[in-house]
Amino acid sequence: MVTRKKVMARGSRGRQGRRGDPGKNVDNLDDLDDLGHLLLGAHVSTAGGTPNAPGRAKAIGATAMQMFSKQASRWAERECEEEECRAFVTALSDTSVRATAAHDSYLINLASPDPVLRARSLASFEAELRRCEALGIGYLVSHPGNFMDDRASGLARNAEAIGMALERVPGRVVVLMEMTAGSGTALGATFEEMASLIGAVPMPHRERVAVCVDTAHIFAAGYDLVDDYEGVWARFSDTLGMDRLGFLHLNDSKAPRGSHRDRHELIGEGAIGERPFRSIMTDERLVAIPKVIETPKLDDAETTDRRMLERLRSYAV
Fold first, then answer.
1. Alpha-carbon span 120 to 97, nearest angstrom
2. Most CB atoms closer than 10 Å: which of 4, 28, 132, 190?
3. Region of residue 188 (phi > 0: left; psi between -120 and 50: alpha; otherwise: beta)
4. What is the pLDDT of residues 120-167, one digit of tens each?
5. Residue 234 belongs to a domain with what CATH number?
6. What domain range includes position 249?
């Protein structure tokens, strides 16, 4: 099983923050030392090149970040040249970010029964892993894909492909399988199904696979974070084990619980509401887990993300 030590922050400076005065005002994110133990940030743009992402994370006071390493809606692949890698590492070292994830392409479907699409998806997934290794990014977030024909067969195809990719691209990058809302033929909407998927990844590669829980996704899939917060995490722990949790996407939901619709909303302003996020931010089991938001950017991404992170940090004290 993936241990907490194994999944903790790579693609980072490794600097430890200190817990400050719990009564101190945290509205100003420039003073990160007070809540420096938190790994909290957002999905940030790589417009203009990956070395620009760390600066955008710094601008919102992030200690964790997520990004794309290529255009997510195109098949075109690319390699990270040495100059780009050096610039990215240098830019990251000038921030307080201690955990970095890349999200893979939305086009990838490792569960597809179509041999052409699956082969193309596998090649793209391997390229994602190579870019993460080159940039020193510790995590690669991936959706389990759509089975299209038979659910069990889709799970088997996905697990096999993950094992093949990790065999071909050795390294330290941890693959984070993201819980989904469960629309259509999407896999990974229940803890039990995710456990089956990960359990089917061959050893020793299974040690490099963990779970990313998206609050909006599991809420839309039917998990009651509002009225049964402890029950949800008890079920996760019993089914997958808390050591398998590698990352959290903190998003409120425009859609009601059980709708199976993936619609993100600003923190505390959707169907989930404020209370579950307060619980997450004060939950000792989740303190060491990197957390990023993927909430709407509105008219100004930096201002909106900064406001959402300020809100979440205020919940932590």
1. 33
2. 132
3. left
4. 999 999 999 999 999 999 999 999 999 999 999 999 999 999 999 999
5. 3.20.20.150
6. 4-315
